[in-house]
Amino acid sequence: MGGAYSTIVRGVPELLWVLLIYFGTINLMRELGEVFGIPDLSLSAFAAGVIALGLCYGAYATEVLRGAIIAIPKGHREAGLALGLSKTRIFTRLIMPQMWRIALPGLGNLFMILMKDTALVTVIGLEEIMRHAQIAVTVTRQPFTFYLVAAFIYLGLTSLSMIGMHFLEQRAARGFVRTT
pLDDT, tens digit, for every residue of 89-108? Predict the structure, then answer.
């Protein structure tokens, strides 16, 4: 089931998911509103964007975490069983700390890509950095200036995220010697 979710969601472009969820839920929400007595029930552009991007990047994160779990040697689980630990304790005390260290760089990259892909929600009318830049360009007819400002905003957000991810990766790698 998880493999099907991951394959289907990753195989369809994020922009298409945004459009499908925003426009595809209109009738569904209207029918639900009639059932519950709420005539104007609808999904906001923000909610549709969050659901669509969460759905898409959840599939990518699933694969990153799956790969990190697979990278943990089987002997670590066996050692936990030999010590008499429960499966829950083995996962929380042995597997998860190692998995987190392996998965963190990939999850950080996904976070930065997601941050930039928020520009996709402008197609459903949500106001975001690129939408504000487009409005400013339309009013002032100075595309270079406003798109450059938007680029610097994204660059600044990405740089701050990279710094934060660096500290998280250092924290997760405590006690491990990196081989070259």
Answer: 999 999 999 999 999 999 99
Radius of gyration for the alpha carbons in the chain, expressed in angstroms and rounded = 22
Q: What CA–CA distance (Å, rounded) separates 111 from 127?
A: 20
Residue that the structure tokens 């998995």 belong to? 99
Tens digit of pLDDT for each residue in 53-77?
A: 999 999 999 999 999 999 999 999 9
- pLDDT value for 25: 87
Q: How far apart are CA 32 and CA 39, in angstroms?
A: 9
Residue ranges per domain, the chain?
2-172
Cα–Cα separations (whole angstroms), residue 6 to 2, 60, 62, 68, 179: 6, 7, 7, 16, 32
* Local confidence band at 3 (pLDDT 50, 70, 90 cut-offs): confident
pTM, rounded to two decimals: 0.81
Look at the domain 2-172 and name its fold. Answer: MetI-like fold (1.10.3720)
Q: Helix, strand, coil % (nearest 5) of the chain? A: 80, 0, 20
CA distances from 161 to 67, 114, 143, 155, 167 (A): 23, 12, 27, 10, 10
The residues, ordered by sequence, that sit 6+ positions from 124 with a Cβ below 8 Å of its Cβ are 18, 19, 22, 23, 45, 48, 49
